[in-house]
Each structure stands twice: as C-alpha cells, then as structure tokens.
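Subject: two folds for Thursday's group meeting

Dear M.,

Sorry for the delay on this. The cluster queue was jammed most of the week, so I only got both jobs back this morning. I'm pasting them in the order they finished. Each block is the input sequence followed by the predicted structure tokens. Could you check whether the formatting survives your parser before we put anything on slides? The first protein is the one we discussed after the seminar.
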Amino acid sequence: MEYLPDVDVPSEIPIDLPAFKSQQRRWAKGSIQTAIKLLPRVFSSQVPLFTKLQAFIHLTHYLIHPLMLIIALTSLPLMTFESSLWAIFPFAPACVFLCLATAGPSALYITAQQALHKNWRRRILWIPALMVIGTGLAVSNTRAVLEACIGTANHFVRTPKHNIIGMTNRPQTSYPLMIFDSVSILEALMAIYCVFGLIWSLQIGQYMISPFLFLYAAGFALMVFFSTKEAALLRWHPQTLFTSDDLQSHVFASERAYKEALGLREIAPLKPSL
C-alpha cells in the first residue's frame, strides 16, 4: 500500500450545513464505536508502542469535540477565580493546549491545499470559516460520542447526493431532518454562555482566552442560525424541502452509480437500518 498525497479524488460534499452536521455526527459515532471495538485488540497486540499511539489518536480523534465543550464550559469558572494565584497555573496551560489544538488542524488543511492546488494561498483564506464550523459541531458531535459510548442505536442517515456542480440548479436545502431540536437548544445556550464569557474575559483582561470564546460563540451561533432557518423552511415553505421519497431516490441513484462503477450487478432498493 502506498499513500499518494498528490492524487486529487473528486467527491460531492454536503450542500448545506444541516446535511454536513448529520454527516459529521454519523462519522463521529462510527469512529468511537470502531475505537471501542478495536482498541483493546490493538493495545494487547505486539505492535510497537508508537503504532498503538497512532491507532489511538486516529480512532478517537472525535473526542476533541467533548473536550472542546468541556473547555468552553470551564472557561468562565477559571476566569472567575483568576485573582487566586493557584488558578493561574491551570489556566495558562489550557491556553497553550488551545493554541496547539487550533494550529494542528489548520496546518493539516494548509498542507493539503498546498499539495493539491496552485491557488492554495487564496483557498486558505477560508480556514477561519472552517474553524467556526468545526467548533460549532461540538455539541452535536459530543452527543454522537456519548451515544457510541453507551450503545444507543439510531437509524443510519445517509448524506443525500444530488450531482451538483457549482451553484447551478442547487436546491434550497437537502432534507428536513435537521430542524430545531434539543441539540439546537443546547447550542443556543452555549452561544449565550460563550458570549457572556467573552465579555467577561475582556472586562477582567484575560485576553488569551478571548479569541477562543469568540470562536465558540460564533460557531454555536452559526449552528443555531441554520437550524432555525431549516425549521422556518419546514414550517412556512415545506414545498422547498425534499420528502423521504426524494431522499430514497437520491440515495438509490448514488448507490446504483457506485455499483455500476465497480462493475457489480444492480442492487435492490435500500431499506432503513439501525
């Protein structure tokens, strides 16, 4: 097996944030389920320690979202006790780890864009927006991680494929599965909490944590905005949304094209599964 970093593989990404959110939740839950199943075998094997560490990081990388949520929730108490000398010590390392966690994914995306595209400098201007979206997924993906840990079963929700190239013939939304639910309420509460923390950090002069609180607040607020938008579309303009039959036809067409590309026989219509 050989990894070729200069090979560009085209694919269709979710056309809107609700579809992306659902996809990421599925990936997060699946990754943690795989980690729970395979990591005991990896740790008990005879492979080198560094290989075990790589396997652990690769299979549990979605744990970053619960950790991000914990950091957001504990930022305000840490700042509240900033006048105590003992509280300065856990606060400063937290900022260092936040910087490292922010720089790591950004470096990954910059390297990928540099390897694939000549206009990579223009493309990396989108990294701040990517950071906001990634931060906003913390609540939704934390729920997925917890569901994987306690063994909660859900329907397998596929990401719709529409064969869209550019912005032409683009539907208003992919599907009405991501509406304003309990996760959106928690995201709204987290956005308010982080805004309050941001204001408090500026008032007491804790400027190291301010950019991260701004990032959290913007990310959660973005999720709430699009969840509210989808709920409004579902309430006032239901004809603009895809029905379950539409979704089934898109999923079936995508699976059929995949089978045909592999030279396999025609497949039967799909059925929902847990």
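Second protein, same layout:
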Amino acid sequence: MTKMRIIVKKNEEEVSEEASNLIINEIKNKEKFVLGLATGETPIKTYAKLVNAYKQGDVDFSNVKAFNLDEYVGLEPSDVDSYSYYLHHNLLDSVNVNEENIHLLNGETIKINQIAKDYDLKLEKNGYTDLQILGIGLNGHIGFNEPNSYYDFGTHVTDLSESTINVNKRLFSEQNKMPTKAITMGIGSILKSKKIVLLATGSKKDEIMDKVIFSNQITPEIPATILKLHKDVTIIMDEEAAKTYLKKAGTERENIN
C-alpha cells in the first residue's frame, strides 16, 4: 500500500484555500487538463475560490475538460437539485470552460445503462482525469460508490444507502424528492486518475477518516480504503475532521502542514 500525503488545516476556509491552490497549480502545469469534479457540501468553498481566482486572472480554464463523479437518477440536468445544476451554478458557469469540454453524467432514467457505458468510453478517450477531487461520505463512500461486498469498477447505477439518503435529503428543495438511486463513476475510473485530492471537513468526518487512514484492510465495506492502492493521493482535512488522526499521529507528523 502506498503512503497518502495528509495535510491538516485549521478550518474549512483553509482547507478550501489549500485545495484550490493545488488545483490551480496543476492546471497551469499542463497544456491540456482533465479535471474530475466532486459534488456535495465539502467542495463548494473550493469551487468559490477557483471562481475568484479565475476572475482575478490567476487561472485559465480554457484548456480544462471537466468530468463529474455522480448524478441522481431521475433528475434532469436543469433540475435545481441535480448535480449538473450544482456544478454549473457553483463553478462551470462562472469560468471559461468551453461547453464542448464539459462532460456531466445524465440522470435521466431512459437509456441510463447506455449513458454509463458512454461515460466510460469518454473517460478512456480522454486518458481519465489528471486530478480527481473527492469528498467522502460518513459511511466511506467516494462518488456514490456505497459500501458493498464488492467494488464496481465501471460507471454504474447504484442504490443509495439509507445513511446517504438521510444525510443528503436535507439539501433538497423538497426532502421527499430525494432519489433512492444514483449513477456514479466507478472505483476503477477513480483509480485511473493521475492525482487524487480527498477533502474532509467537520467533526462528523472524524470517525470515517480515522478508519480510512489507519485501517490495514482494503475493503468495499469502506469504499475509500481502496485509495491506499493509488500512487498519488493527497488528503486535506480541517482539525475537526482530523481530530482522531492528530491524536494517533502524535509527534510523528512530518506530513502535516
């Protein structure tokens, strides 16, 4: 198993600053760049900082191709609760990513399996992501790769766990509108990213980050543990999410900024 780079910052603001700076530097270092976009609450401030950096002239997105991790099944892209809307609203509509370079999963139920296959082909054609942003669920899911008895490696439709539904439905305009299924990039595609940046903030993420970092076992029951097999993973946490990690790391914290 490879060693993850772990960065602990004081708070969510500093986590977002660290993440956005890392992403900007990576974009600047490549003529063409494929960026994998996470959704949910955790990356919102990072996206806000990327938008601000673009408006300040500090980064150019015209060379960026964007792929997203996941989408709810049954929601059209224009739906305010869809992740397509979320990404356009929080990032894509405010920077100069060319429209033809935006590749977002579509949650429409018709042809959903074909959508998954086509998405994998697009990822492969573009060499997969140069940098994949990830959040993490309280149960260890990355994307919507929920705890299971096996890993799904390709883009696929998944049943959302009860815990995921309970956490996410409060973010919906109407809680009873929360879908029970999602389409998600598979573990295999995530692992083919050249660089992975996992963001975790808040005390609720402390327990799962402890399990991911210190577990000696790679198991689909804690999906994020598979990141231990990747050669270039950076975890950026705030002190609340890293509380147990900091206690266990003790004085041997050379990799903490």
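Two things I noticed about the second structure. The helical segments are 12-28, 44-55, 83-90, 112-125, 162-168, 187-191, 206-214, 243-249. Confidence is low (pLDDT under 50) at residues 251-257.

Cheers,
T.
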